[in-house]
Amino acid sequence: MVRYSAPLLLSCLCLSLLLGSSESQPRWYSNHKHYYYRGSRATHLGFPRGSQVRRSYWQNDVGLIMTASGAAATLPYRTAVVDQSGHGDFKTVQSAIDSVPSNNTNWVSIQINAGTYREKVVIPKEKPFIILKGRGRRRTKIVWDDHTSIECPTFMSLADNIIVKGLGFVNSYNYGGSSDNELLPAVAAEVSGDKTSFYGCGFSGVQDTLWDNAGRHYFKRCTIEGAVDFIFGNAQSIYEECAIRVVKGGFITAQARETADSPSGFVFKGCTVSGVGLSYLGRPWRPYARVLFFKSNFSQVVDPRGWDPWNLSDQNGVIYAEYGNFGPGADTSNRVSWEKKLSVDVWEKMTSMSFINEDGWLERQPY
Ligand SMILES: *[C@@H]1O[C@H](CO)[C@@H](O)[C@H](O)[C@H]1NC(C)=O
Ligand SMILES: *[C@@H]1O[C@H](CO)[C@@H](O)[C@H](O)[C@H]1NC(C)=O
Ligand SMILES: *[C@@H]1O[C@H](CO)[C@@H](O)[C@H](O)[C@H]1NC(C)=O
């Protein structure tokens, strides 16, 4: 278990004190709460009796500590702090992510203090097990305005096993103003890794705001804003208690399920749909698009026809369905004829967590 010899650790400590912290040079020994080993834990690791050892927040030589009762407990994940004014370990979100070792196998947490971070952020494929924690979607925001194609989002999450909490992602192109710019794809976030969850996050943009591209994802109490195809892609996702805000008329979803046996689909549970203009619940980006709205609150923003066929001449493969929705937009009497009626069994299966969580990955995430 011991991968770091005592002299090495201690000399690193001295070195880091000499170097201090800087943006490009991670501060290897942070002042964070948990990262002390003392007493028997320290001697067990080979340190002299009585030593108190501070360790780097990303070192992963030990996964267990002893609690007061003597039982082994999972070591709380380690935390680095991003703070624009320099009171943390990093000044930018990307530099904190870059400091995580490649092929990391332990959960690490990056806490992002309040502020508007004007940067593009990527979690590369080889950096899994990262928790990004903002101070709330309105207080901690990551903002950029790239556009023209869907390939240049503000935030790109490519690794598996990612948790994001209390963060706002904005693509500011055309967003928030009375801009006359041409409507173009302007993605705020792309989610392409498996086992990724978002809690209390915000996704803001106009066209193609959230590219829910691939993998199994869970969105809880998030706010998603846009006008055209603003929740789109081929992922397998549950959106629970989310607020969907139409900033002007268009299409809420553009799901991209490709084949009849693909597990992908978007399930909206207990959400609210509101905003200005008149919007379709979705249009199929691919012939087997699957989108379900369940027990959600629809304002009059929902177009009475419900769904748009886009360029599909045959809508047979498309699975668009609604159950138990309420509010002025929930009347289904004028919906397109090709909206599906699903059996109670299918509704139960699709709206339970097992739709995305059959192997229990969500429970294993430390949140
Ligand atoms: C991480 O894992 C990948 C895939 O196994 C491997 O190609 C890559 O070299 C590894 N990177 C490091 C820094 O260990
Ligand atoms: C419909 O048109 C869009 C935009 O040109 C295209 O991306 C999509 O693949 C088309 N869908 C189908 C099912 O052909
Ligand atoms: C539905 O949403 C509207 C706002 O769009 C809100 O005023 C209303 O209270 C909601 N209804 C319920 C039952 O939550």
What keywords describe this structure?
single chain; 367 residues; mainly beta; Pectate Lyase C-like; 13-stranded parallel beta sheet; 6 helices; globular; disordered N terminus; binds 2-acetamido-2-deoxy-beta-D-glucopyranose
The biggest beta sheet reads: 13 strands, parallel
Structurally, the number of domains stands at 2
CATH homologous superfamily descriptor of the largest domain: Single-stranded right-handed beta-helix, Pectin lyase-like
Q: Indicate the radius of gyration in whole angstroms.
A: 23 Å
- Assembly type of the chains comes to single chain
Just name the CATH architecture of the largest domain. 3 Solenoid
Tell me the total number of β-strands: 27
The CATH topology of the largest domain turns out to be: Pectate Lyase C-like
Apparent shape: globular
- Estimated share of beta-strand residues: 25-35%
Spatial separation of the terminal alpha carbons: 26 Å
CATH class of the largest domain: Mainly Beta
Q: pLDDT under 50 segments (min length 5)?
A: 1-36, 51-57, 59-76
Bound small molecules, which ones? 2-acetamido-2-deoxy-beta-D-glucopyranose
- The chain-level mean pLDDT equals 84
Count the DSSP helices. Answer: 6
Q: Portion of residues in helices?
A: 10-25%
Given the helix and strand composition, which structural class is it?
Answer: mainly beta
SSE order and pairing:
Elements: H1 6-19, E1 36-37, H2 39-44, E2 53-54, E3 64-66, E4 72-74, E5 78-82, H3 93-99, E6 108-112, E7 115-117, E8 121-123, E9 130-133, E10 140-144, E11 155-157, E12 162-165, E13 168-171, E14 189-191, E15 196-199, E16 202-204, E17 210-212, E18 216-220, E19 223-233, E20 236-240, E21 243-255, E22 265-269, E23 272-275, E24 279-282, E25 290-294, E26 297-298, E27 319-323, H4 344-351, H5 354-357, H6 361-364
Parallel strand pairs: 5-6, 6-9, 7-10, 8-11, 9-12, 10-13, 11-14, 12-15, 13-16, 14-17, 15-18, 16-19, 17-19, 18-20, 19-21, 20-22, 21-23, 21-24, 22-25, 23-26, 25-27
Antiparallel strand pairs: 1-2, 3-4
